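Schema walkthrough. Field components (list of strings):
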Amino acid sequence: MTHRILILGGTTEARQLAGKLAARASVTLSLAGRTESPVEQGVPVRTGGFGGADGLAAYLREMRVDLMIDATHPYAAQISANAAQAARASGVPILALRRPGWEPVEGDRWTLVDTFGDAAQALGPAPRRVFLALGRQEVAVFEAAPQHHYLIRSVDPVEPTLAVPDAEYLSARGPFREPDERALLEKHRIEVVVSKNSGGAATYGKIAAARALGLVVVMVRRPDLPDVPSAETVEALAAIVDQFGVDHFVEPAAERGV
Ligand SMILES: NC(=O)c1ccc[n+]([C@@H]2O[C@H](COP(=O)([O-])OP(=O)(O)OC[C@H]3O[C@@H](n4cnc5c(N)ncnc54)[C@H](OP(=O)(O)O)[C@@H]3O)[C@@H](O)[C@H]2O)c1
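Field assembly_structure (string):
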């Protein structure tokens, strides 16, 4: 019988993992439905929330999922918490893909903060030229610091636009290369970059460019994520699934009450 794997996605890695595992299992990718025109995922997709951890647990049972893989973005803390809880409640095994964060290197000027609101505060009272490389859900808190000039780049347009007098908007999807990021920062005479610690190469260009230009990066720390078995790369996670086989993750039928 073909095993069923549910991948919680919304990241490039989730799509790559789905492609790799599709040859050996029946894979469904779940998206939150935030992005208006998500890229083609290559496997069957379901879209929208499950209705909390209970809703996700019910879905896992109903769809007879054998293995759940949390491959969501590191800042999507709610769905990761829900996934861990739903796995416990349903007895469906869980693995997580946890891309490591970036570490500061020589020449980096990072100011570390815990929340997006703290990042807005950290910009200080004097007007500055700020690049917000954040999602449209995350930029709203910068309305609390309307004195700055903002250059805002997100995958989907920020609508409604921010209630601040001086903001420019760019819609773009990575990867972003360092030379292009450097040119962008110079063109807009940016003084401060606000970023998530996403990790990976696709969005590191702005961090490297900020370092080269001697700019401050206000880095929003990662949220706490549940402690579940995990791997750092698509290859490593696929290897775990291969090495043990999906059967390894499936508890005996008696224990699951089927
Ligand atoms: N590619 C990127 O750079 C990037 C950046 C940020 C976020 N994302 C992705 O965007 C999605 C939403 O992020 P968020 O910040 O809103 O997450 P969140 O705060 O952790 O999740 C909020 C709610 O959205 C629903 N949800 C989130 N991810 C889902 C998924 N993969 N499938 C089905 N429902 C999902 C869940 O609703 P219910 O409680 O109703 O189930 C969850 O409780 C995540 O999947 C994340 O991986 C991608």
